[in-house]
Design goal:
By secondary structure, the chain is mainly beta. Helix content is 14%, strand content 48%.
């Protein structure tokens, strides 16, 4: 028995931070504008940080035989925009992923854009053509009106499940770096 297994596949864990992609290389955090690869699998992980519960969508991607896992909080604009563009993609081909923060009338907007075959993909659902996409629901919490996006999150989780089918995995907590 060896102290270290040398034939184990290395996994690169990637997340979105301030409109960029972040990656920990074991020594320091590296920041990138974009990444690319072919999505082969997805799994969901329920997690908690400082009393806040959330679900991560973890997309397994391969590029040049290297394995990457892109982590996106399902309750985020990043996740919703990623799925909206992903729906327009050919999942058997390489996808370029580029997160972005823009400002509109002093309000920040968070999104992820996807490129395939040298062309930026169009969102599958738009404001003018919402199709079967559920709309935000306005609810009141403590006297304040807020938007409830839970139907949209459920919609995208179902779509991912339908699209990837048996490729959706249960996560193995031993594989996670956190």
């Amino acid at each position: 028995m060896r102290a270290f297994e040398t034939n184990k596949e290395k996994t690169h864990w990637v997340w979105v931070k301030n409109g960029k992609l972040a990656y920990w290389n074991g020594e320091k955090q590296l920041i990138f504008d974009e990444m690319q690869g072919i999505i082969t699998d997805i799994f969901f992980k329920d997690d908690e940080f400082q009393g806040t519960h959330f679900t991560l969508a973890m997309f397994t991607m391969y590029f040049d035989a290297e394995k990457y896992i892109l982590n996106l909080n399902t309750d985020s604009s990043y996740f919703r925009s990623f799925c909206n563009y992903l729906r327009s993609a050919d999942l058997n081909k390489n996808i370029v992923i580029r997160p972005k923060i823009t400002e509109d009338d002093g309000k920040k907007k968070y999104s992820i854009f996807l490129q395939q075959d040298g062309k930026w993909l169009k969102a599958f659902y738009t404001k003018d053509k919402p199709g079967d996409f559920p709309q935000l629901v306005v609810i009141e919490i403590a006297g304040k009106k807020v938007y409830d996006n839970s139907q949209q999150i459920d919609f995208w989780k179902k779509w991912l499940n339908d699209k990837f089918g048996n490729k959706i995995s249960e996560y193995n907590s031993d594989d996670l770096p956190f």
